Amino acid sequence: MSDRFLVLGLGSLGQHCVAALKEFGVYTIAIEQGIPQEWEIANLRELLDELILGDCCQDAILQQAGIDDCRAALITTNNERANAEAALAIRQLNPNTRLVIRSSKDNLNQLLSRQLGNFIAFDPTQLPAAAFAIAALGTDTLGFFNLEGSWLRVAKHPVTKEHRWSRSRRPLYDLNNRTRRLLLHFSSDAEIPSAFYTWQPETAIAIGDTVLTIETAEHFLLNQRKQATIAKRTKKQHGKRKLLRKYLDIRFLKEQLSHFWQLNLQEQIRRVALLAGFIVLILLGTGTLLFNFYHPDTTLLSAFYVTAILLLGGYADLFDKFDAIVSIPWWLQLFALSLTLAGTAFVGVLYALLTEALLSSKFQFIKQRPPIPQQDHVVLIGLGRIGTKVANLLQEFQQTLVGITFNPHFDLNLLPKMPLLKGDLERVFAEANIAEAKSVIVATDDEMVNLEVALMARSINPRSQLAIRTYGQRLSNHLEKMFPDAQILCTYAVMAEAFAGAAFGENILSLFRLYNQTILVTEYQIEAIDTLHGLLIGEIAYGYGVVPIVYQKPNKPSTLMPSDDIPLEVGDRLVVLANIEGLRRVEEGDLQAKTRQLHIEKAVSEDAIFEGANIMARICGCSLKEAREFMHHIPATWPQNLYEHQGYRLVRELKKARVKAKLLPFTQNERSRQSTHSELSIQNS
Fold it and tell me: Which of 314, 466, 479, 650 has the fewest CB atoms below 10 angstroms from its CB?
């Protein structure tokens, strides 16, 4: 296949895509309408093999760029209309070119994918949103994504004295099981490894070590729900006790009464309403008692209704005759008239205030938002497209959060289950309880606002987990030095690695940041010409430095954390965790060298020989006939080299079958000698 790749548009995303593609060592061409006055990536001009000036939607410009011979086109301009138009033009010129397009139109993307084929579109907010949400989960959660309906979590485990792994001195290989895979291990006095997926299987876990794993997250989510429920119940009980103590305190009642008479103009209206309502209640009670007393034949309920009618202006309904009424004393009739007059005044005031309240609300009957959390919550600053997606993800992760927006026109119907603050920066910071927050995400659309807010947040709460959104790589580099323990997420740099991976035909499902490198959740559909075809899953893991997490045969259920012993065949599906280096190695078929050899000394019985051959065929990927023939000529050294993890696992399994074996380091001389010895042994037999 051709190694020519075309990038359309050299904005921030386009420039980062060029840099990511050069990690693969491919021939890169770019189309831009004009040379930028300043390159965001300083050496970008040297990274480009060709730069063509012109409109990327024109057939002549695309043909000048050699679209007929381009393996993939990355369409990254800010204009989504131009992106769609360029995709259509490219497909007419070359029906085989892989199209990777920047677009947020989900429905249009699906239609174009069906129509054009070999097409993938990325929403410019979706992938960064996942990275921001993960950054907010705290230092113990480095990745979080959903595969096959199951949530998976990349977890950091500092091994302390209290940790269960420190007491047993378990070897690292023992951590792998059906729900967990080990990713990285380093001791307290060692630097964090720059390579992804590096650990020694026989190393024992010690206090002070750090272990990174990927594991199913059902228990994590269940604990999050339990903690949220307990915190909510505790807060509610605490609030009830606090309120009860207040109302039983005479000093509190005096303070409230004094405060009531010292209200401002807005609150004085409320005082008038309370006073009018209080007078109406007194008149209602007095009238009920008087009418019931002077008419013994009536009931208390009837007297109440008569008084209510008078207060609502119904004097004429009761005293509508012109003749003298001798059954009711004159003073009681005068009192009834007074009730009607008083009711007209005070009930009218209540009607007016109620009408004003309804009109001032503008009939926006919005569901009341939850109260602002007091501690151990996430503060999300900026509720644009990325911020909204981050909020939805965090709520899905069962996280307690509060949102802050500086947009006066923010739609209040969005995110109804999240506390929301709007307005002045200093005021909302105080109300959001940032000093007690566990994480602060700064994700507005303005880099300078993000910088200002990040500095304020760090000064208020230096202990919180801080994630800052940026657009330019230079600002990101400066902020990484200023905030070495923060997550600085350059939106376009994160997206560019996903674009570059997708350009080679892979499907990027999600991503997360791990110690300043982007880890891509990548899906492979195995074809006959793939560099993965015919390899064992273990060989893929240790040879390419990727982590297989999902395996599926055609028309079969998928398997999480698959066994190392499964060979990949055409039609299989494999999902792996990989950095950009791992994707490059897979693309080029650049397997790491196998550095171990297996030497079998003896087997205790014929049954051990039989079972040992089965184990070798399964783990080494050789034929059963070849393994049986070798086992009948022991002691001998297996002629095929093995990866270190593969070799140690084979030794452990053989030991269970009562076959004594050991692992030897590999040298070129030994390889030649052992190969010759093996050939002679087979010929003699």
Answer: 314
